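Q: What structure does this chain adopt?
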Amino acid sequence: MNQHLDKQEADSVLLTDRDDAHPAHSLSAYLKFIIPSLIGVLFFLTPVVVDGKVTIGMGVLADELKALTKDYLPAFATGLLAISALVALYAALLKPRWASKDSTLVEVFTPKGGWLALRVVGAAFAAMTLFEVGPEWVWNRNTGGVMLMDLTPVLITFFFFAAILLPFLVDFGFMEFIGTLLRNIFQKVFKLPGRSSIDAVASWLGSGTVGVLITTQQYEQGFYSKREAAVIATNFSIASIAFSLLISNFIGLDHLFVPFYLTVVAAGLVAAVITPRLPPLSWKKDEYNSASGKQIKEAVPNGHSLFSWGLEQAVRRAHNAPGAAALGRSCLMNVTDIWFGLLPLVMAIGTVSLALTEYTPIFTWLSYPFIPLLELLQLPEAAAAAPAMLVGFADMFLPAVLGKGIESELTRFVVACVSLTQLIYMSEVGVLLLKSKIPLNLLELFAIFILRTLITLPIIALIAHTLVF
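A:
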């Protein structure tokens, strides 16, 4: 199959090279690429400093909306989850005629099996947390309270603007342009298309969830193979500068933020090179989404430079971009899918994960093998630091919570850096990956989490010992 696709791509390139090597485009064609792409760059990839915090334009809009509606967002989220569960149960039990239709909207409201159960559980947890009824492990401020009061308001506002503005970044040629320019570097170093650099930068400046959202859409549209999508989503959806600064301040390392973040970047790059070359990611196949087929063409034909071919691909993509009505429907479907499909899963899985951390010793037990490793790396208070190596799988903020009580600044530095390089957090990124069509299951996500931990831990410890302390 791949050979057939590669032959089709080669024939396409040869045809382009022979008959249309340097086509003439009108000014309006170039502007259709440039103007929307600039809007996308301004909102997703341009750093903005607001009140001393580094963020992006989309983040500013989300923060403003959150500030205006913060008192109502938990109740609004509970309402969304209740509607989501009730409609899904109605469709599953009574099987109305509309539920048999083939459409994206119907797909959102007709989950099957375990996904339906999780949607109902998520709605129940939200209601129990909002009204503080039922078992305390559900509505406790450190479990369901974190999910409903802290995380869902962020996801509601963040993804609302992300869904609306994302087409400017991905549908008007910018991905093709940058992808062609960076193709050689990313293929040689990471064995990935050049356009994956956009996912990384969007995560770096905005949020790891934005990177996953971009990756998911690119995979479903045929621009990433199964292997590429799985690798990008688990290795390039990096923690943002803003969140990294928050972690460093919380754990008492704000005076070391520059070496702290440089250490995270260095260890993350090494992990991004090594992890995809090991199972389970190395087992993924370079097969493209069957619904779309292979769409990517970053290879440069004869007669073109990297820049000219990137520009040509970008203009063609912009020319074929959907119209305003189609984009509007797509944005509405994205928001609907996230609000009614993703939020219940985040609430259900996140609450259970945090409850396991808060009320059971399971992560402490699982962390015992890390104690001799931490001692080997000459880190003080190894027994106290060991659970922090694993609780990040439940939520990205938990390692900092556990690490805050450690007296050794060296050990706190290592704990905080490792937590930011693990990337797979079930309360947020993990749920988004499980819900997506990217071929990753829970066991594989945990395996990748452990691999990244084992790869980055010794690197971070070495840097800490030799260059920082």
